[in-house]
Design goal:
single chain; mainly alpha; 10 helices; globular
């Protein structure tokens, strides 16, 4: 797929950084992997299954670490999962032509980049409260469908939503997002198991890179804050998103 081993190793190194940055806030990095693959010229048909496979691996590890650190609340998560998982399965079964896939993913990346470039930490002045079940189910359904269509886990939408509306405090939102992403990614891949045929031969290299990145990222996410690094990541997502929608 790439012209040389050097290109494969460079992409793997970039994926390592993406996984480290994303897992520091409880995300699995699918939008970063897609952004990087877009910048490296990977075919759209390969991007989605690769991102989902890496997402499942990283989200599983990330969920374990955040749950073990008690940075999670089931009541916040389950209404979103109830709506998201079936629609992620449906979205995964839909094969979008590259002409549609690229702009949709581009918009997803732009939104994700805007979230990370937000000038202040995402927080609310409201008193923390549980999300209404019906609103959680509806929001989860929309996020789940978009997740399945694009090969992302939906965390870039869930995290700001629960923080803005006062449904979670910042650190526990990381654990909620991690498990949400894991379930969505599995559902999206099961929705179209046939796409695994497009997985690249370089996948084991990418897998090692993102797991190592997740070890670093979850350690920082549990112990430290990394706002400036996240802003740099946001800039990368904006650049890749603009590339996919054809701005340059």
């Amino acid at each position: 797929m790439f012209e040389s081993l050097g290109s494969e190793l460079l992409l793997s190194a970039c994926m390592f950084m993406g996984a480290a940055l994303y897992t520091s806030v409880g995300h699995a990095g699918a939008s970063a992997y897609i952004a990087l693959m877009a910048l490296f010229g990977v075919a759209p048909a390969v991007m989605r299954p690769t991102a989902l496979a890496l997402n499942i691996l990283v989200a599983g590890f990330t969920s374990f670490r955040y749950l073990r650190a008690d940075l999670f609340r089931w009541r916040t998560l389950w209404p979103f999962l109830l709506g998201a998982v079936p629609l992620a399965f449906v979205g995964g079964a839909i094969q979008l032509p590259g002409a549609y896939y690229k702009p949709i993913v581009g918009v997803v990346l732009l939104l994700g980049g805007a979230r990370f470039l937000w000038p202040k930490e995402l927080k609310t002045n409201r008193e923390l409260h549980d999300p209404p079940v019906w609103i959680g189910v509806l929001c989860g359904a929309g996020i789940g469908l978009l997740s399945g269509l694009t090969g992302t886990g939906g965390g870039i939408f869930l995290s700001p939503l629960v923080l803005f509306l006062g449904w979670s405090e910042t650190r526990k939102a990381s654990g909620v997002a991690a498990l949400f992403i894991l379930c969505n990614s599995v559902a999206g891949l099961l929705g179209n198991v046939a796409i695994v045929k497009a997985l690249p031969a370089e996948l084991p290299i990418y897998a090692i890179a993102v797991v190592l990145g997740a070890i670093v990222g979850t350690t920082f996410g549990i112990r430290f804050a990394v706002p400036m690094i996240l802003k740099a990541l946001g800039a990368v997502l904006i650049i890749a998103g603009l590339k996919l929608i054809g701005v340059y």
